[in-house]
Design brief:
The protein is an alpha+beta fold and 209 residues long. The protein has helices spanning 26-32, 58-64, 90-96, 138-148, 183-194, and strands at 2-3, 10-11, 17-19, 22-24, 33-35, 42-44, 48-50, 55-57, 65-67, 74-76, 81-83, 86-88, 102-103, 124-126, 128-132, 155-159, 168-172, 197-200, 204-206. It is built from 5 helices and 19 strands. A hairpin with a 2-residue loop joins strand 11 (81-83) and strand 12 (86-88).
């Protein structure tokens, strides 16, 4: 005879069920345990991790799942959409992706040509600033863009997989005359507040069509 782990009833060992190394009676097996949706092992409800659609054991959660940062649903690791260190399900990612400060590598806005008052027949430039050692952080990017874009929308941020850990690539968003480009405040903000390493790539002149 053995004792049911849940209700304490004495039962014949041949009639008992083994759940997580414990004996349970048939009634408790039906009422107090479930089958993990991932590994199919029988688990006590008290040890479950679940959302509206999925119920799994703690081991499978730790090894194969994440929680969506926005809706808190369970997301299988191969289906996660990452935004920096934050995991999202596909539905929530689609809702928030247009609000990202760090755009995808293929992002290319319509250019705006800036020059100082009174200047004529100027050559315009696009400047590329590669930022390394700081990590992919949308909030940091927002603060940097706020500093650079105080008066005009001069900069935007993009990912660049050629950099370590897909760190952000900051680019002058629009062609500018050379004197219009605001290096100082922008670079100072990056280095002082976020400990980034900045590489300023060659300035390439562009003629307005």
């Amino acid at each position: 005879m053995v004792t049911c782990y849940c209700c304490g009833e004495e039962i014949d060992v041949d009639d008992a069920y083994n759940v997580e190394g414990e004996y349970v009676c048939e009634s408790c097996y039906d009422d107090e345990t479930f089958e993990c949706d991932c590994c199919n092992d029988r688990i006590f409800y008290n040890n479950r991790v679940s959302d509206y659609y999925t119920m799994i054991c703690e081991c499978c959660y730790e090894n194969h799942y994440y929680r969506c940062e926005k809706c808190n649903c369970l997301v299988y690791n191969e289906d996660v959409y990452w935004v920096g260190d934050y995991a999202y399900c596909s539905e929530c990612y689609d809702e928030i992706k247009d609000n990202f400060r760090i755009k995808s590598y293929n992002y290319k806005p319509k250019p705006i040509f800036y020059k100082r008052d009174g200047e004529e027949a100027v050559r315009y430039y696009g400047v590329e600033l590669e930022i390394d050692d700081g990590g992919y952080d949308d909030n940091n990017a927002g603060q940097i863009l706020k500093t650079a874009n105080l008066s005009d929308e001069l900069l935007y941020a993009k990912t660049d997989s050629s950099l370590d850990d897909e760190m952000e690539l900051i680019i002058i968003s629009s062609p500018n005359c050379y004197q219009y480009i605001p290096y100082t405040a922008f670079c100072y903000k990056c280095c002082r507040d976020y400990f980034y390493t900045i590489q300023i790539l060659p300035v390439i002149p562009a003629l307005r069509e």
